[in-house]
Design a protein that fits this description.
139 residues; mainly alpha; 3 helices; 0% strand; flat
């Protein structure tokens, strides 16, 4: 008989854990719902404000007598001028790229190559001597 009581307690502990998980899931769902309701309300407020602003803009345009105050000719001229400047700038960039193209590397004579090799060998020998001297002084 005592074993049954223990099993019931074990089952009740499992059911308590399951109940806690279900409660946490409900809380998370509630939080998500609250978030979406908040986002929806903010969107609705923005939409309503936009509608009132649009209505106000239409009212202002109708009071001005339907005059078109936008100067299309001036805008077109400014746009053409800006495009001309862009094209001019691109042409200058292309010209600079052509002028600054890397030249072919100079051809070295065998004499110059041997001189460079000997300098490199001397520098390598000097650096290994210096590093071995400093390493022996550290010991």
């Amino acid at each position: 008989m005592p074993k049954r009581g223990r099993k019931i307690k074990a089952k009740s502990k499992k059911s308590e854990a399951e109940i806690e998980n279900i409660d946490e899931e409900k809380i998370e769902r509630g939080k998500r719902l609250f978030m979406w309701v908040g986002v929806g309300c903010v969107m609705a407020i923005f939409f309503v404000v936009w509608l009132f602003n649009l209505k106000y803009q239409f009212r202002i345009n109708s009071q001005s007598g339907g005059k078109n105050t936008f100067n299309w000719q001036e805008t077109k001229a400014e746009l053409d001028k800006a495009m001309g400047q862009v094209k001019q700038g691109l042409a200058e960039i292309k010209q600079l790229q052509k002028n600054s193209a890397p030249a072919a590397p100079p051809e070295l004579t065998p004499e110059q190559i041997n001189l460079l090799k000997s300098k490199l060998i001397d520098e390598a020998a000097t650096s290994t001597t210096a590093s071995s001297t400093s390493a022996s002084s550290i010991k």
